[in-house]
């Protein structure tokens, strides 16, 4: 089956009539100003059976060529089938490890714990999965004359800006990123600068930056690249595809992921539902959305049993990338939770830092956002929501190498709202082999 026989288009998430080509320069429904989603022609996709899809995708793993060496474009029929191969902008994102963590599972009573290491992607976060799709579609739209705005822009707390800047540079397109001043780590700040993006630091938080970039997009000055844009979700849903494929085309009992703007919750649901509907897998996993206590609007709505997520003023969190009080994808996340029998839990600053330290002591190197997800997984297991024999996949969204200040602060005991119970410090000893031998010998006897 050739890709041109398949199609995908924008549709209103709330159900307004009409479809729009993916190259249409819109990120909201023209009729109701609501969110958009990408609709695939499942009838055409179903002409290939579930086992045949599995075989095709497995074959591409064995002998990857360009662009199938990308974890996203190796599933291109399910993502953006109308994008011409010459317009694809890829850094071979995806194909990230699904790492077993047996010692951490034993420590916490989880039957089987695996960590999807999305931070091993090109710019160090899962954002690359969505950005390759968005920038590739933009490149095609510009070639076809469908876009007026050539500048790509985003609001960001770090990872989105790094990814957009990298893919924009690879496509030869100008990029503007709006960052909250003083709330982004040095490693995250230097990435868009190095890629040549115009970096604008504003005296506000993420939500304030988002309000500005949305207005710039409304004026057709920029094309919005935040996860409000459903093209991002199309790439990010491939996390679900990869997890199932790495488990032999089976589905875990639980997926736990940290979430701020809530697009990744919608993406996982889209991916797992697509596989089930096309006969590739037989069910959906349960979803646990993990939020930082300092930025927890979805958690508050879930506890209250509300069908609406009210904005909150996010407080400063060590999990800075999910420090978002007004998530644009809240309706999508609520739908994902309903479909996946999901739950929402929160983690305090102390809990997320301790979860990182526990994971690090077992060979992982967890960023603070992954710490939120791990802490939530531990809490759900303690309460019996996650049963003892179940398989749990925690999505690690970024490389901890971006958060060196957080790691150093933890072990120095200087992090706000954190009791560093597992802090480890360097030992000062004299230049005396016997003294060193005694110290090391004591470690072996412990």
What is the count of β-strands?
Answer: 13
Total number of helical segments?
16
Low-confidence stretches: none
Q: Report the helical percentage.
A: 25-40%
* Gap between N and C termini: 62 Å
Q: What is the typical, i.e. mean, pLDDT?
A: 94
Write the CATH fold name of the domain at 98-124 and 232-412. Rossmann fold
Strand content: 5-15%
Structural class: alpha/beta
- Give the radius of gyration: 22 Å
Overall 3D form: globular
CATH architecture of the domain at 98-124 and 232-412: 3-Layer(aba) Sandwich
Which CATH class of the domain at 98-124 and 232-412 applies here?
Alpha Beta
Largest sheet: 6 strands, mixed
Question: Within the largest sheet, what's the order of strands?
Answer: 4-5-13-10-11-12
Spell the H/E element sequence. Answer: EEEHHEHEHEHEHEHEHHEHEHHEHHEHH
Structure commentary:
39% of the residues lie in helices and 14% in strands. Strand 7, helix 6 (186-194) and strand 8 form a beta-alpha-beta unit. The model has no long low-confidence stretch (mean pLDDT 94). Helix 9 packs across helix 10 and helix 10 (263-277) crosses helix 12. The chain has a domain at 98-124 and 232-412: Rossmann fold (3-Layer(aba) Sandwich). It is α/β, with parallel strands linked by helices.
């Amino acid at each position: 089956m050739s890709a041109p026989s398949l199609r995908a288009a924008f549709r209103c998430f709330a159900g307004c009539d009409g479809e729009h080509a993916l190259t249409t320069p819109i990120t909201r429904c023209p009729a109701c100003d609501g969110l958009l989603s990408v609709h695939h022609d499942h009838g055409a996709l179903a002409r290939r059976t579930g086992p045949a899809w599995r075989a095709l995708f497995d074959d591409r793993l064995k002998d990857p060529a360009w662009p199938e060496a990308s974890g996203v474009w190796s599933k291109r029929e399910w993502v953006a089938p109308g994008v011409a191969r010459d317009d694809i902008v890829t850094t071979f994102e995806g194909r990230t490890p699904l790492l077993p963590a047996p010692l951490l599972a034993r420590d916490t009573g989880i039957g089987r714990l695996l960590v999807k290491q999305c931070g091993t992607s090109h710019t160090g976060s899962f954002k690359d999965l969505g950005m390759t799709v968005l920038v590739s579609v933009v490149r095609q739209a510009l070639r076809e004359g469908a876009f007026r705005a050539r500048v790509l822009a985003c609001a960001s707390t770090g990872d989105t800006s790094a990814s957009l800047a990298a893919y924009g540079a690879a496509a030869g397109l100008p990029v503007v990123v709006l960052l909250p001043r003083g709330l982004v780590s040095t490693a995250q700040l230097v990435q868009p600068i190095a890629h040549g993006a115009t970096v604008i630091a504003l005296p506000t938080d993420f939500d304030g930056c988002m309000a500005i970039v949305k207005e710039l997009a409304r004026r057709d000055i920029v094309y919005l690249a935040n996860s409000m844009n459903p093209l991002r979700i199309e790439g990010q849903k491939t996390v679900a595809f990869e997890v199932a494929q790495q488990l032999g085309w089976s589905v875990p009992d639980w997926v736990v992921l940290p979430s701020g703007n809530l697009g990744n919750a919608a993406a996982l649901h889209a991916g797992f539902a697509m596989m089930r509907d096309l006969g590739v897998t037989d069910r959906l996993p349960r979803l646990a959305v993990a939020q930082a206590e300092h930025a927890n609007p979805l958690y508050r709505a879930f506890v209250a049993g509300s069908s609406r997520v009210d904005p909150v003023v996010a407080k400063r969190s060590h999990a800075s990338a999910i420090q978002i009080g007004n998530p644009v994808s809240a309706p999508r996340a609520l739908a994902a939770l309903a479909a996946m029998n999901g739950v929402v839990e929160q983690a305090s600053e102390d809990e997320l830092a301790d979860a990182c330290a526990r994971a690090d002591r077992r060979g992982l190197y967890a960023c603070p956002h992954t710490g939120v997800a791990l802490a939530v997984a531990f809490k759900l297991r303690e309460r019996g929501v996650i049963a003892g024999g179940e398989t749990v996949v925690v999505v690690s969204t970024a490389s901890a190498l971006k958060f060196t200040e957080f790691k150093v602060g933890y072990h120095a005991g200087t992090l706000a709202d954190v009791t560093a119970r597992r802090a480890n410090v360097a030992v000062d000893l004299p230049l005396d082999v016997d003294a060193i031998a005694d110290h090391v010998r004591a470690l072996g006897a412990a």
